[in-house]
Amino acid sequence: MPITLYSVSDGPPSLAVQQCLKYLGIDYTLVNVDFGLGEHMTEDFAKKNPQKEIPVLDDNGFQLGESNAILQYLADKYAKDDTLYPNDLKERALVNHRLCFNLSTYYRYISEHVMAPIFFDYKRTPLSLKKTYIALDNFNTYLQLTGTKYAATNNITIADFQLVTATMCLEAIDFDISNYSLVQNWYSTYKSEYPELWQLVQAGMKEISAFQKNPPDLSHMTHPIHPVRKN
Ligand SMILES: N[C@@H](CCC(=O)N[C@@H](CS)C(=O)NCC(=O)O)C(=O)O
């Protein structure tokens, strides 16, 4: 059953899905979509994902966007046991909660502060910084409430894949997270327990880090939403 992932090499949602595929030992074809060339904004790509966003999974013709939905699908379909996405009602609810928290708040605020100003004509502001601190504080509190090694349980789950890639964006710009000690411990634990997954994420982090120092020239791009930086 051929699986293809349309992915962007430094995209946190794409890297979350790549971790899941690697963890599950699934063979797949990786198609790198060139964000800078706007390959995801073509009508052809819109047939795969009408939202024109990356990643998109194609599992033998079944096409799915939204990285959280992709992670849930992969874990439900391919995991040999339920550690990655627990069957227990409350554990699964916590995983789902963390996925929603990442989408609505954690990655959203981090991405507004870190990623948007790298790629488009946005500024880091006191408000975007404050929102990033709020996101970190929320996550730290969730780790305190569950007292677990990982974000939802004592095992890595699909929620960690997303939260790790969001946190990696902070590391890419040398953002100090030491005031959020449980987040910092969780992030270090992940790196030491899953070095092969971290390697994947780290490659994306290095790209973001390089772009932070030398922002990409996207002045040729016409974007439907984001203001393009004119050089
Ligand atoms: N909610 C989506 C978001 C995916 C997303 O934002 N992807 C970025 C790349 S990292 C993208 O495709 N952005 C489209 C654009 O800015 O034109 C998901 O989790 O899959």
From TrEMBL:
<comment type="similarity">
    <text>Belongs to the GST superfamily.</text>
</comment>
<dbReference type="InterPro" id="IPR040079">
    <property type="entry name" value="Glutathione_S-Trfase"/>
</dbReference>
<dbReference type="InterPro" id="IPR004045">
    <property type="entry name" value="Glutathione_S-Trfase_N"/>
</dbReference>
<dbReference type="GO" id="GO:0003824">
    <property type="term" value="F:catalytic activity"/>
</dbReference>
<dbReference type="Pfam" id="PF00043">
    <property type="entry name" value="GST_C"/>
</dbReference>
<feature type="domain" description="GST N-terminal">
    <location>
        <begin position="1"/>
        <end position="82"/>
    </location>
</feature>
<dbReference type="InterPro" id="IPR036282">
    <property type="entry name" value="Glutathione-S-Trfase_C_sf"/>
</dbReference>
<dbReference type="InterPro" id="IPR010987">
    <property type="entry name" value="Glutathione-S-Trfase_C-like"/>
</dbReference>
<dbReference type="InterPro" id="IPR004046">
    <property type="entry name" value="GST_C"/>
</dbReference>
<feature type="domain" description="GST C-terminal">
    <location>
        <begin position="88"/>
        <end position="216"/>
    </location>
</feature>
<dbReference type="Pfam" id="PF02798">
    <property type="entry name" value="GST_N"/>
</dbReference>
<protein>
    <recommendedName>
        <fullName>Glutathione S-transferase 1</fullName>
    </recommendedName>
</protein>
<dbReference type="InterPro" id="IPR036249">
    <property type="entry name" value="Thioredoxin-like_sf"/>
</dbReference>
